[in-house]
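W.,

You were right to be curious about this one. When I first looked at the sequence I had no strong expectations either way, so I just let the prediction run and decided to look at it fresh. Below is the sequence, 72 residues in total, followed by the output.
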Amino acid sequence: MLRRPCLPDRSGGTHIKFGICLLDTPDAWTTLWHSAALRRTVGMWTLMPRARVEQLGRLVHHEGRPSLSEQD
């Protein structure tokens, strides 16, 4: 998962942003806002476009609600 904390600039300028990647992604700009997470058969998670997740995996429901996608 990519988090982008925003730190205020003490000099009164703009905010400084930096990213921390916690999931496998195809590039540095992939975020949860623009992607879907897929749990791979080996147990790892990958972020990728939703259409690709739908091709590779299946939607898993938890308590009757869509929860996550797992690789087939």
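Here's what jumped out at me. The chain has one domain: 2-71. And, maybe more interesting for your project: The mean pLDDT is 78.

Coffee later to discuss?

I.
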